[in-house]
UniProtKB/TrEMBL annotation:
<keyword id="KW-0031">Aminopeptidase</keyword>
<dbReference type="Pfam" id="PF05343">
    <property type="entry name" value="Peptidase_M42"/>
</dbReference>
<dbReference type="InterPro" id="IPR008007">
    <property type="entry name" value="Peptidase_M42"/>
</dbReference>
<dbReference type="InterPro" id="IPR051464">
    <property type="entry name" value="Peptidase_M42_aminopept"/>
</dbReference>
<protein>
    <submittedName>
        <fullName>M42 family metallopeptidase</fullName>
    </submittedName>
</protein>
<comment type="similarity">
    <text>Belongs to the peptidase M42 family.</text>
</comment>
<keyword id="KW-0378">Hydrolase</keyword>
<dbReference type="InterPro" id="IPR023367">
    <property type="entry name" value="Peptidase_M42_dom2"/>
</dbReference>
<keyword id="KW-0479">Metal-binding</keyword>
<keyword id="KW-0645">Protease</keyword>
Amino acid sequence: MRDKALSLLTELTEAHSVPGHEEEVRAIFVDELSETGELSTDGNGSVFCDCGGEGPRVLIAGHMDEVGFMVQNITPEGFLRFVPLGGWWEHNLLAQRVEVRTKNGDKIVGVVASMPPHFLTPAQRVQVITIDQLFIDVGASSRDEVINDFGISIGDPVAPVSAFTSMAKEDYYMAKAFDNRVGMAGAIHTGLLAGDTDNRLILGGTVQEEVGLRGAKCAANFIKPDAVVVLEGPPADDTPGFNRMECQGQLGGGVQIRMFDTSAIGNPRFAQLAVETAQREGIPHQVTVRRSGGTDAGSFHNANEGIPCVVLGVPARYIHSHNAIIDLNDHLHMVALATALARRLDERTVVGLTSYL
């Protein structure tokens, strides 16, 4: 289980898949699950593996996209202006490597840059530089070189560059895009482990979560699930500046079970089922109520006639940056809980999630 998790996380985190351009992660999903069930995609590009079976339609899904950028313009001197795809904090951007994926699939490396501080006034040096003041340097000397020699076009997707790296502490790993490649690895891994279930298990990868939970809206209508387990890579809160007594996302604390964020109030019965299942299976877990943030549950729970959702997460330090950190054990605990829920969600259990009369 551990080796498979590491293999999936390595391949997925190093893939180039920003919102609206999720091809590389979708290809990994298809390759891993081609013999597990029937594959399909909706009109936006979200991908699904229907494992078959009888009973309620249970969807276990992550989102395929990572925060990234898009080429907005090319200056006469050959520098790239860009727009963000998803939420970026400008502090995390300067001097970081990125890759532009061209129309023919080439990846052109560059660096996010600005006017050097040596040429700024003291007042300017202490200001946060906004994204519209930044540019990407791909080593070109003209717009013509960027377009004709490098093959870069306006509208090309841009992703961070960061290798999946083991750290000195055992089971700690650093990479980009743990939000949400931990969820995608978890969905794939759960499908490989679940076996026969008393439901129609469907695995999924949605598009464009980072730009407004967009893919889940179409996915809900396409799959019409009776229950959804959303797998995520939420921010940890165990670093300096947080009150450790109030920590709900500690590395090594186990899988997160999210009760609330600003996008969704978790179905209380489903959340309690997840907690009880974790307790019964001896799976380390931490219950979370968040004052901000959101997940695909925000779209799923409001779709169709209303769909009960639960959100499981792997806490990750420094998400939406080039270098996030997870504890692999938290990921393995998320896979274990998702697999246990997949086996437990039979007709009677799923119906009970929304029996209000």
